Structure to design on (201 residues):
């Protein structure tokens, strides 16, 4: 995916990260929203039990902090030992640091610690079947539809533009950590943890 999609999609802000129709800025309107201006302290790790078929091999995001709107350079490499397809589910656990305590953020308006079923269908809604994958995924042979075939995929350092992103008023300045668990039926496919700091105007 692009830019800091991993972290921001973990906060269910994927539409804002992806932009309008591939590259066109998208303003996500939310009542009493705040504009996301900077993301810093981005880090990640695989959190599976060592048997998950899908793992991130490397991921870099620059600069740090990232100013929004603005440009960002991303490189990523992933590996999958099994085909990933429907039914595909993601379980998000989002925590915010309050003083020295990490508190779980509840699922509100489909943002926060939510469970999402039917991810393959969601991808089809964003990129209709039969439509070419957006650049630079297309150039580097990175798929954007289920099923995802086994193999290794890598995106070399690539530049992206992050448009204006609006946050709900309750999702504001602070340190966050997010765990995302992907599964197919009873089988866990991947577990990734992301940490990042949000700064809003």
């Amino acid at each position: 995916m692009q830019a800091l999609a991993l972290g921001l999609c973990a906060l269910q802000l994927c539409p804002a990260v992806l932009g309008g129709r591939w590259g066109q800025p998208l303003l996500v309107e939310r009542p009493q929203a705040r504009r996301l201006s900077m993301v810093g302290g981005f880090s990640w790790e695989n959190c599976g039990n060592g048997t998950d078929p899908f793992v991130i091999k490397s991921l870099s995001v620059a600069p740090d902090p990232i100013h929004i709107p603005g440009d960002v350079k991303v490189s990523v490499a992933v590996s999958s030992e099994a085909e990933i397809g429907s039914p595909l589910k993601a379980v998000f656990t989002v925590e915010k640091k309050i003083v020295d305590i990490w508190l779980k953020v509840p699922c509100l308006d489909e943002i926060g610690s939510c469970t999402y079923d039917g991810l393959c269908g969601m991808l089809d809604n964003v990129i209709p079947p039969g439509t070419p994958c957006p650049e630079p995924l297309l150039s580097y042979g990175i798929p954007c539809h289920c099923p995802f075939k086994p193999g290794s995929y890598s995106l070399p350092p690539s530049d992206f533009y992050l448009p204006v992103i609006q946050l709900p008023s309750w999702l504001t300045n602070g340190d966050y950590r997010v765990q995302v668990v992907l599964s197919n039926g009873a089988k866990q496919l991947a577990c990734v943890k992301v940490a990042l700091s949000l700064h809003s105007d």
